[in-house]
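FAQ: What does the model actually see?

It sees only this:
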Amino acid sequence: MREELKISSGSPFPLGATFDGKGTNFALFSSSAQKVMLCLFDEKGEETQRIVMPEYTNEVFHVYVYGVMPGQRYGYRVFGEYAPERGLRFNHNKLLIDPYAKALTGPIVFHETMLGYRPGSGDLSFDRRNSAPFMPKCIVVDEEEASWKKPETPWEDTIIYESHLKGFTKLMEQIPAEQRGSFAGMAAPEAVDYLKSLGITALELLPVASFFTSGFLTSKGLTNYWGYDPIAFMAPHEPYLSTGRLEEVKTMVRVLHEANIEVILDVVFNHTGEGNHEGPTLSFRGIDNGVYYRLDKNPRYYYDTTGCGASFNVDHPRVLQLVTDSLRYWSETMGVDGFRFDLAVTNARNEHNEFSWRSNFISSLQQDPVLQKVKLIAEPWDLGPDGYKTGYFPAGWGEWNDKYRDTVRRFLKGDEHEASQFASRIAGSSDLYAKQGRRPWSSVNFITAHDGFTLQDLVSYNEKHNEANLEDNRDGTNSNWSWNGGEEGPTENPELKRQRLKRAQSFMTALLLSKGTPMILSGDEVLHTQRGNNNAYCQDNEISWFPWNALTSESQEMLDFVRKLISLRKKASSFHQGTFFTGKYIGRTLMKDVMWVSPEGREMMSDDWNRAASSCLGLMVNLSEKGSINRHYLLIFNATGEVKRWKIPEIKELSWKVLLQTGGGPETEKIFSAREEIEIPSWSVLIMFSDSEIADEFYYFKPSSRPERGSCLPVARHATAQELDGMDFMVYGPLGPVSDSEDLDEC
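And it is asked to produce this:
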């Protein structure tokens, strides 16, 4: 121990370690602790000083220590009663991480001294071993707020790319080896140029805050790759810092912003790495167990809606303060643009453990002057009672739409009776989101994500293959809605490989040309496989890493196709307008903004939707632009193993050209006209385009017989209902009858 440092009482605000140029103020909240000791360490990890925090104000222990500079290592020992049966788990033998720590000296990996109880004796026993030698230390930092301009991409123009920070660049040989798998690696020109060339607008990173690797994994030689066991919400995971400096994070964000790419972080506030009552004492449990976690009726145990052992008690004001302070720190100091909240329903449960869109959590974020400006995305479910809440978050929130994922998977693998649901999903899921002023972008559409099959595995495997996780293939979902095409796993069959490529491209076409916010899983654009593993949370290896060293000709073909789709989405505002389709007529063209078209080239009727074999569907999107030009897109989905003949819709004024076809269909300059038939290959999507001027005309005739369309008498486009009063007529639009005379005013 060195000589006593000069101290004063300091301030209870702000929480954490705050450097002011002369020294550092330390402040730690605990409503039940009897005493808190600040422990200082040298660069070797040796404990050099213990300071009893002398003041306790508003349930905050605080002290100011003169001469403590940025870079100082520290931690806390918190004294109090150890009575698990009453929810008290204080153990001053355990060095604790500051909930407000901005940096740690290393990763947090399980050691049995981290347990508050004696191993083998149950959690009611008390362990007196010192955990400090095995714990990372907090670091005092002095950070300035980000000062550069953010992209501020509108929600409706957003295209999200979900990626793992380490996995994306770990095998990227073009960048220096020491930077691969780090924030610096993601900021490397080669990485940024690739993302920019792809055309995405937002990079969503799996958790990058400090997380814990449990003994369950270390005993098997595995690791917590995904990072969903946080222990310090504001501190970047130390192994991701190639330089060891926080500036590396800000550099990554700034460089991506210069490329007009936003950064969204996956954040976990529903549970922590401390787990259940048999988990380690790393921070929150030893600081104020009954505040930071929701306790069960028997307070020895935890109320858990996460499946991870315990629910973080975000409903408590001090815990909510930690969460919002953390979000503001990442937004203002690190410059990030948004957050995806893991198991967000747990965060939004009230004091009765019931979900409420008026919960303290949601209300705080919506009124916060900083956080109301960033993108907020909910994973709208948890494992608790009434925990499935897709469509229930309020205006301003995006939501992962699993109904979209499952419906598109089922339809495009040929399942029957899915057409109507498929139509609803790719049109923006208005049944879920057209309320409370919400817009189509509220639906974050995805077909694959980090949790589940990759796109290549979705078309290559019928069953999960998680043997590498060493849990006897029991982990991971069994509801994958996948199909291998007739052969499980890798194949050398050229026809099957071609079929799988077409199906993968069809999935991507649906995703990128749907209303809503598309989210692409990193690696899907190059057909990355996880060898059938649909729960690769512990695979920090080539199963999970982006396959830069294993790209094939099929990978390049898929990549080129995805780039074309993203470019098309950006150019065709029909697919990313900020409003829902209405199914109503646009302008005076008597064409609806969206029409579903049958193989016969006519608008779908109820009988068409009820067909048993309904895996073929056409979608016509019409956009009335300023001036006299109207843009039209025709998407034809053939989710069957047969070639289908399709009649071009009977609109004689329109001529159509093929824009894109899955599976690398033959390029053609042919112009297709009304009623002409076209062949749609099996498992394919055809995208056609028409850009022409259509006369805004009504047609009328005696209802006793329908004359040929060409012999109908046109009514002047500005004719009024009064001018037609008394006539016996029907009104026809391009695809058939629209209205009778009584409804003409609406037309």
